[in-house]
Amino acid sequence: MASMTETAGGFGKKRGEKVELSDLAQQVASTAADKRFSPVLLAGLVRAAEIFVILVTASLSYVLYLQGESVSGTLYLAAIASGTVLATLGMRLADIHTVPAFRAFVPSVARMIGAWTATFAILAAVAFVMKLGDAYSRGWTLIWFASGLCALLAVRVALIPIVRHISAHHGLDRRAVIVGGGERGANLIDALKTSGETDIEICGVFDDRSDDRSPKQIAGYPKLGTVSELVEFCRQAAIDVLIVTLPLTAEKRVLEILQKLWVLPVDIRLSAHTNQLRFRPRSYSYVGQVPMLDVFDKPLADWDAVVKATFDRVVAALVLVLASPVMLAVAAAVKFESKGPVFFKQKRYGFNNELIEVYKFRSMYTDMSDANASKLVTKDDPRVTRVGKFIRKTSLDELPQLFNVLRGELSLVGPRPHALQAKAAEHLYDDVVVGYFARHKVKPGITGWAQINGWRGETDTQEKIQRRVEHDLYYIENWSIWFDIYILAMTPVSLMDTRSAY
Fold it and tell me: What pTM was estimated for this model as a whole?
């Protein structure tokens, strides 16, 4: 097992010891961090554009061609809806919404024409079977088919320069790092190069072994550092995928590496192309033609991240409007009781272990404030004002964190952000819980699964922080927008229990 003194990065150094990257690794990290455009988001935008043009061409054909005609609008509406659904499903089956398909114009367009034609063939067959052929205008059908096809082709043509521009900067590629050099690393890189077009850009190799076993150049890619430096590199470069090349037989070494890396919000894959042990085909995922075993998946990727961010900002804005009278009253009470600012700002660890500044209503006397939370607030703590006791018990002091949500630093729901020197039984949190920083694979939240299950307030024992982290990790692994809604709905109920809130 990993050491109980793992740090913010989980890489075996104690808190406060900064990992220094080599000049080359620093240069690669700063270059890679600027390139990012999710292929899944691009595919979604293209699908949305296609659905839009299908609906528009069908509607315009109806208005322009059938204007003044006595026809059943309901039947035409049903045909338009059915055609849109069938075309969308057909193009999905044709697999034309991938990065390789966007780049290969002619083959993808051929498949798109096939899907569009099949859609109208199915509609015609259904109309024939249901004896509805006379209910629809053949002229409208032909105009919709032709105009829809032209519009879909126009979308693809317009996509070409966009994809080329982004691809020229590797913006559609997932940034990958090879973990483990030497012969196995070189074999993996060669396999990726010869497997056809892939969606990854290899940034470099990280390996703990010396140069005689793992040279500075592996299959044309530089060795950027050791596994201990990899965590810091991944955070700076916003790496998407880590591919571990060690064999399954090196179980102990694989586990040691994974215990260091699983705190990162990245996909972690174990290369399986040279393994003697074979699993069922569905057990593998593939990068190009190279089989991989999925170890960890990045939580809240692509559209999930968009949905959660949109939900957070919309709800936070509404709550701010509704809670503004209460916030004004709290601000007045804080200002009236003691000298000092209304708000208290505190550095805390956020997503990917980055430092953020969290807002709260000030609940302590100004000259007794503890910005690093080096001493836990306890029952009847003399540092806490009378107003502070009330707003801490009711969690009204947390309301200004809605501004952090609007700024994109916090989420409404997620693991609570802890202060830098927060302790449980006189031990720093990351000294108590192995893999503590894995809870930072998503944005921290104002409320969370741990909080509504009673694990809020003082952490005076190691068990309390361990249970809190267990709940945080459960939330990360099981996230859904409905889970967020449930936690938000249960938060007011959980706030009624103020026994551990001081």
Answer: 0.71
